[in-house]
Write a structure and sequence with these properties.
heterodimer, A: 182 residues, mainly alpha, Rna Polymerase Sigma Factor, Chain: A, Arc Repressor Mutant, subunit A, 2 domains, 10 helices, elongated, B: 332 residues, alpha+beta, Jelly Rolls, Phage tail protein beta-alpha-beta fold, 3 domains, 13-stranded mixed β-sheet, 3-stranded mixed β-sheet, 6 helices, disordered N terminus
């Protein structure tokens, strides 16, 4: 888990040393989660990716000028959110739509900022720690949208076993992530 | 990946409602339900995230960044080049060129031996024929607005046209002949009784800095004569061929008195000629000499007038040099 100090240091390396490696690290850490975040406002995944790429590009371009006031995470989220708002504003055809879905200008709650990227990562790690069978059953169910019967067929076990796997997975995940879940 | 949020959420809801139906509505069960729902939502997000091709996006962004930094480097390079060029330009304009301009310019003094006509090409390309026993001083490089040379003796100038830079010939008599591109003859021997400027082509200005400064503009075929004795300046019509024949190795006399002829001969042959009788000075001759020796010429003069002459041999002097030959002409 990347704490704020680490991110700050990363950003310092980018801003002062023009460190490409640091920028790449930052990109790989935040790009997917920011794209998914942008999808809250804009339905097109492609547009979201473009917006986030543009955000990173501008971040590099303006790296010497940027002042991080609260946190680096906050900065990224705010930039993406503003870009989304700009994009929606420019879509005059979808004006009504934009008004309906335009992000509110108020700040995200600290929890929300905190969870961007992090929680998913923790989930990913928690998943990796599950027993292989349980993990596979859970992934097939959640990621591939297969029914218990299909999973049972795929794994060569009974649907009851699949159900047991899934509930085991849920229990373990709940335990692992209990501090971050509602 | 055929992924549809609505389907999943309905699936979620379905799961949740299943659980709700199955479990009694206790507080802890509601909490569990919320947690499971949270996990499902997280999984959904994780799946979405994993479907994003970060490496591809990185390639796109890093290419853009590389282009950006290339542009920046190119821009920086041009800026630096421009600054360096500017500095060099300023350096040249304000330091090196003034230095060159104010640096003492070496002069060349060219003198012509008796009996020899020397031709020289000046730094600007102008041609100068320098008559016997004359001296021309000119800089190795012309700078500024003026092309200035100094003359003592006689020279014929063929000046390269340059409207920007005046060509000035200064003589020891404070005569300045000024031209942009013409051909003219200046005769200013220090020991002669008069100075002459003859114009053969174009036009020139002649300024005489005497007690009463005079500036004359000559036209082709005219000759300015400054008398050294009276300081009188006259412009007369002349035969330019006679005045400039010397540069082609000829001596041309048209009704010239003997005194002048003798003077020119002594200069050409480097001898001293005495006229014993003042009457001789008034004798007039018309003649053209090309390749004749001094003896030939004296013989011709002797034949056409009642005169005779004697030539003394050169004598060795105490300082190991030789005296000039002396010719004495007297009436018969």
């Amino acid at each position: 888990m990347k704490d704020n100090a680490f991110l700050h240091n990363l950003f310092r390396r980018i801003a002062f040393n023009d460190d490409h490696e640091a920028f790449k690290e930052l990109f790989f850490d935040f790009y997917p989660s920011l794209c998914v975040f942008a999808q809250r406002y804009i339905s097109s995944a492609e547009v979201c990716e473009d917006i986030v790429q543009e955000t990173f590009y501008n971040l590099w371009k303006n790296r010497k000028k940027i002042k991080v006031t609260s946190s680096f995470r906050n900065l990224l989220i705010t930039s993406v959110k503003n870009s989304c708002a700009d994009y929606l504003r420019k879509q005059s055809v979808r004006k009504v739509h934009a008004e309906r879905e335009a992000p509110h200008e108020e700040m995200d709650t600290p929890e929300e900022i905190y969870t961007i990227g992090e929680l998913e990562k923790m989930l990913h790690e928690a998943l990796e720690r599950l027993p292989p069978n349980v993990q596979k059953a859970f992934k097939l169910s959640r990621c591939e949208n297969m029914t218990y019967n299909q999973i049972a067929e795929e794994m060569g076990v009974s649907p009851k076993t699949v159900e047991a796997y899934i509930s085991k997975a849920l229990n373990m995940l709940r335990t692992n992530l209990k501090d971050y879940l509602p | 990946m055929g992924y549809s949020p609505s389907r999943t959420s309905s699936l979620c809801n379905q799961n949740i409602s299943e659980k709700v139906q199955r479990a009694p509505k206790s507080g802890s069960n509601m909490k569990n339900l919320r947690q499971v729902n949270g996990i499902y939502e997280l999984t959904e997000t994780l799946t979405k995230q994993q479907s994003i091709d970060t490496a591809k996006a990185w390639n796109k962004v890093s290419r853009k960044i590389a282009y950006l930094s290339f542009r920046k480097r190119a821009w920086n390079f041009s800026c630096r080049a421009a600054v360096i060029l500017l500095i060099l330009g300023l350096l040249y304009q304000f330091i090196i060129q003034p230095m060159l301009d104010t640096a003492p310019i070496e002069s060349i003094t060219l003198s012509s031996a008796p009996g020899i006509v020397t031709k020289v090409i000046l730094p600007d390309g102008s041609e100068v024929w320098l008559n016997s026993q004359s001296e021309l001083t000119y800089p190795i490089r012309f700078t500024g607005k003026e092309r200035r040379v100094e003359l003592s003796g006689e020279a014929y100038f063929k000046v390269i046209a340059d409207q920007q830079n005046r060509f000035n010939v200064a003589t020891s008599d404070n005569i300045t002949v000024s031209a942009y591109g013409t051909e003219f003859n200046v005769s200013a021997y220090p020991n002669a009784s008069e100075c002459q400027v003859t114009l053969t082509e174009g036009n020139v200005n002649v300024a005489v800095e005497a007690e009463r400064p005079v500036t004359k503009e000559l036209s082709v075929g005219q000759k300015l004569v400054l008398s050294r004795l009276t300081g009188q300046v006259n412009v007369v019509e002349t035969d330019t061929y006679v005045d400039t024949a010397w540069k082609d190795g000829k001596m041309v006399f048209r009704r010239e008195n003997l005194e002048t002829i003798v003077y020119k001969l002594s200069r050409k042959f480097g001898v001293t000629i005495y006229l014993e009788d003042d009457v001789l000075k008034e004798y007039e001759y018309t003649a053209t000499f090309t390749n004749e020796t001094l003896e030939d010429i004296l013989e011709l003069l002797k034949r056409s007038a009642p005169i005779t002459y004697s030539i003394s041999d050169r004598e060795q002097l105490g300082n190991d040099t030789f005296s000039r030959r002396v010719v004495t002409i007297c009436t018969r």
